[in-house]
């Protein structure tokens, strides 16, 4: 993509009302635009990051046999009255009345709807287990939307749901999602810590949240610091159940608190095993060899639109964003310092074309702007590798390759540049 064709409305000055670094940088880099309190447009640069996350989520869920679907945003109040959550959920639920005086709502979650779907179509134990997921815009009427997309009223969420024949199989599925989430966040370059959490309004007696430890986080977690060196991806159920890590409200119930340390963090995912709470309410049962059985259910959520902000809180400096490789909107940022020089521009065009032909994401700053503006925008946007065609090109037929993370610079002849960059992309963190 060329800058001249790609809309990136960068800002030099920070907005006056932002409180988190991620909020500031997302607005200044042109990733998002606030439309009203807690509601944002995702601009082209920001949407590319969202797409990277969504693509990875879809890939891993599909590989694990989890059926993708799409449920509607607007739901009938009837199914929420069956579960008795319509009156208890609270003011975060946005309720509406249509022209026929029917009570509707913007679904904050989908336990009721997926249960109604399961009841209609799943009739036999032979149809179990079943796992579904969708990626959907959610709306929760937050009393104080703040911190940009970190706590918005409208947001993008991945929620998954499982149906099993009994509690043992339900726990097995729960364990599978736990490990899937660890794998997902690892591949996104976000080292989360799983912590025990109360189930809250959703219900059940088994629940974990997935937190990124950052000093600017809005949450508090408590954990045995030995867990900081753990890989969690191969944990079995007994290890998951005995994790010495807790949310702040769960921690209050722990008796021996001597070896726990407190950390600030950002919650990015939450999983629940709530058994037959919803299937019983809906009178959802299936045929089995021993008569009827009530399916055992679980729910598994990820805040898709929170992840870019969390990644920025994790990795930034005084100049801008420092993207992890997996989340960066582009892999390479090509900067033509001498746009009026025909040789330099010819090389940049050729380089840009060859990189694209290798299916590598590249943005080419072909603007007729002063070098300082180009460099400051490059640092603000935070692409992992900056490739600079400047004075050394004319003098020595060299270009500069700059790592955004630490500003390490390599000057290399143009004939070796592409292969060197491909090598660096492979090992760049």
Terminal CA distance reads: 22 Å
Looking at this structure, what is the CATH superfamily of the largest domain?
Answer: Bira Bifunctional Protein, Domain 2
How much of the sequence is in beta strands? 25-35%
Rg over CA atoms: 25 Å
Describe the structure in your own words:
With 429 residues, the chain is α+β, with helices and mostly antiparallel strands. It has two domains: 21-317, Bira Bifunctional Protein, Domain 2 (BirA Bifunctional Protein, domain 2), CATH 3.30.930; 330-427, Rossmann fold, CATH 3.40.50. The chain is built from 13 helices and 23 strands. Strands 3, 7, 8, 9, 10, 11, 12, 13 and 16 form a nine-stranded mixed beta sheet that branches. Strands 20-19-21-22-23 form a five-stranded mixed beta sheet, with helices on both faces. Strands 4-6-5 form a three-stranded antiparallel beta sheet. Strand 14 and strand 15 form a beta hairpin. Helix 1 crosses helix 9. It starts with 20 loop residues before the first helix and ends with a helix. The model has no long low-confidence stretch (mean pLDDT 93).
């Amino acid at each position: 993509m060329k800058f001249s064709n790609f809309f990136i409305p960068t800002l030099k000055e920070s907005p006056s009302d932002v409180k988190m670094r991620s909020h500031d940088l997302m607005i200044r880099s042109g990733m998002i635009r606030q439309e009203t309190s807690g509601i944002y447009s995702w601009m082209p640069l920001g949407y590319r990051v969202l797409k990277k996350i969504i693509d990875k989520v879809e890939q891993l869920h599909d590989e694990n046999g989890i059926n993708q679907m799409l449920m509607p945003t607007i739901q009938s109040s009837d199914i929420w009255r069956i579960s008795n959550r319509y009156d208890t959920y609270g003011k975060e639920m946005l309720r509406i009345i249509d022209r026929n005086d029917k009570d509707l709502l913007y679904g904050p979650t989908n336990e009721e709807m997926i249960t109604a779907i399961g009841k209609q179509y799943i009739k036999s134990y032979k149809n179990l287990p079943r796992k579904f997921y969708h990626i959907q815009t959610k709306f929760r009427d937050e009393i104080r939307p703040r911190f940009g997309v970190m706590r918005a009223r409208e947001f993008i969420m991945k929620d998954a749901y499982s149906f099993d024949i009994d509690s043992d199989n339900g726990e097995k599925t729960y364990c599978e999602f736990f490990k899937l989430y660890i794998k997902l966040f690892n591949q996104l370059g976000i080292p989360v810590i799983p912590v025990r959490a109360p189930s809250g309004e959703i219900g059940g007696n088994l629940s974990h949240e997935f937190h990124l430890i950052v000093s600017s986080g809005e949450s508090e977690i408590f954990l045995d610091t030995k867990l900081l060196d753990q890989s969690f991806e191969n944990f079995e159920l007994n290890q998951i159940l005995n994790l010495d890590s807790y949310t702040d409200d769960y921690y209050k119930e722990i008796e021996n608190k001597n070896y726990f340390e407190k950390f600030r963090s950002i919650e990015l995912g939450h999983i629940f095993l709530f058994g037959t709470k919803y299937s019983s309410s809906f009178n959802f049962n299936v045929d089995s060899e021993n008569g009827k059985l009530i399916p055992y259910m679980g729910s598994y959520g990820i805040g898709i639109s929170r992840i870019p902000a969390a990644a920025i809180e994790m990795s930034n400096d005084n100049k801008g964003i420092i993207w992890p490789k997996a989340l960066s909107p582009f892999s390479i940022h090509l900067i033509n310092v001498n746009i009026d020089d025909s040789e330099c521009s010819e090389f940049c065009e050729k380089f840009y074309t060859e990189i694209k032909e290798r299916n590598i994401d590249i943005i080419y700053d072909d603007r007729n702007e002063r070098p300082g503006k180009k460099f400051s925008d490059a640092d603000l946007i935070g692409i992992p590798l900056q490739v600079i065609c400047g004075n050394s090109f004319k003098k020595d037929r060299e270009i500069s390759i700059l790592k955004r993370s630490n500003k390490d610079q390599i000057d290399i002849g143009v004939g070796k540049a592409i292969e060197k960059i491909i090598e660096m992309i492979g090992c760049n963190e």
